[in-house]
Write a structure and sequence with these properties.
The protein is an all-alpha fold and 218 residues long. Helices cover 67% and strands 0% of the residues. The protein is built from 14 helices and no strands. The chain has helices at residues 5-16, 20-23, 32-45, 51-63, 69-74, 77-86, 93-111, 115-121, 126-133, 141-151, 164-172, 179-189, 192-203, 206-215. The longest helix has 19 residues, at 93-111. 46% of the residues are buried.
């Protein structure tokens, strides 16, 4: 018999409640720079590549100074390719380098470099935000979901945000996986973005999920 949902939530947060943004060195805040960096990370995570490789590539891009739409668009295409390569993001480096440049120009031109303007244009509605995010090259519904899962840390208006990955993780650790119940657990945790990240991590690792459930058995 597994533990109560509250115990499972506590274990998830303790073991895996780390934002992917933190792994990438992003100090997430409701400011243009960190929000743009999260968009870059979401773009990289959208490719069929490991999260570890996407995070490493993001760190290399940011270490090279490409932490704003202006810096990203002013970097040469080859510079972006080289940074992605240092993060071992090689299979998709050339295409992604182009998408990042085009996306930076779109953000600067349409939203004045500030994703808060996109949020406000959508009136804070998660669905509206997601729809606008998919206008960026390389950011489809998956990338928009990644962005929203993490940004709920600093955009409480979109919390609690539940998507298929969060639901999949809940199944693995035997939490209620219907959206209403799961949203309630995220909200009650007081850390919806971190709990969502933890559930994504266990959705990607059966071993991690098994360790959580084993630790809370009665």
């Amino acid at each position: 018999m597994t533990g109560k949902p509250e115990s499972i939530v506590g274990e998830l947060l303790a073991r895996h409640g780390r934002l992917y943004a933190e792994d990438a060195g992003i100090r997430l805040a409701d400011r243009p720079g960190p929000l743009y960096q999260l968009l870059v990370l979401a773009t990289l995570l959208s490719a069929p590549i490991t999260a570890e490789t996407a995070v490493a590539a993001a760190r290399e891009l940011f270490a090279a100074g490409y932490r704003s739409p202006k810096a990203m668009s002013e970097a040469s295409w080859q510079d972006r390719v080289d940074a992605l390569g240092r993060g071992h993001y090689r299979r998709y480096d050339e295409r992604t380098a182009t998408m990042l440049g085009d996306g930076a120009e779109l953000l600067a031109g349409k939203w004045h470099g500030d994703l808060r303007k996109l949020r406000d244009d959508a009136r804070g509605d998660a669905g509206g935000i997601a729809s606008r995010l998919t206008e960026f090259p390389g950011v489809g519904p998956t990338g928009a979901s990644i962005f929203l899962r993490e940004v709920q840390e600093v955009w409480p208006g979109v919390a609690p945000y539940v998507d298929a990955k969060v639901t999949s993780g809940a199944h693995r650790v035997r939490l209620p996986a219907d959206r209403e119940s799961l949203a309630g657990l995220l909200a009650a945790s007081g850390q919806p973005a971190r709990l969502a990240a933890a559930l994504v991590r266990v959705s990607l690792s059966q071993r991690a999920a098994s360790e959580v459930t084993a630790s809370v058995r009665d």
